[in-house]
Amino acid sequence: MENLRIWWSELHYTTNQKRSLAIIGLLVLATSTFFIVKTSTPSEAIVAPLTVEVSLSEIIIDVEGEVENPGVYRLPTGSRVFEAIKAAGGVTANADASDLNQARLLSDGEQIYLFAQSPKSSGSKSTSKVKPKGSALVLLNRATAKEFEALDGIGPVLASRIISFRKANGPFATIEDLLKVPGIGTGTLSKFKSKLRV
User: Fold this and answer.
1) What is the pTM of this model?
2) What is the phi/psi pair of residue 110, to 5°?
3) Which of 9, 68, 94, 117 is the most buried (most CB within 10 A)?
4) For residues 50 and 31, what is the distance between their CA atoms, to the nearest angstrom?
5) Is residue 29 predicted with pLDDT exceeding 70?
6) What integer pLDDT is reported at residue 139 of this predicted model?
């Protein structure tokens, strides 16, 4: 402060010029302070968009058919078919799990159905599955063309296309994969979707 006073007294200006210089300096200082304060406290806070990723920690699976305790079960995400069967108490003595890929990853809302073993006739095992009474379930990856034709909206041509598609591309992972078959749209699929199982 003392240095400033000495510098001020040694300036070669008149008193009026010094006053004018002081006023201009104060105005510049006040204006600068005003703009600094205004820009450092914005009137509107800018908020970056918040991205939230929701990942399911568990899935819900329906296990039916030849298991000890059929029903709906909660399993950790990433569970496989064999874990769903285990949660349902395991298979019954009459179960045939040969048509299931027990290592397949499960998706939320899926149903797993275990059919009963086929009755043995003439010492040979039939490839057809015994279905529960009142059930018309068709196994998407095992059904024959005739079994597909029994579904509403599927004739010999569509049944043949399903079989050909399955042979060319491998097993269907979901029922909705049928939409990839030429000639099957959402309307057609909705007619028989409830009667299909993967």
Assistant:
1) 0.41
2) -80, 155
3) 117
4) 37
5) yes
6) 84
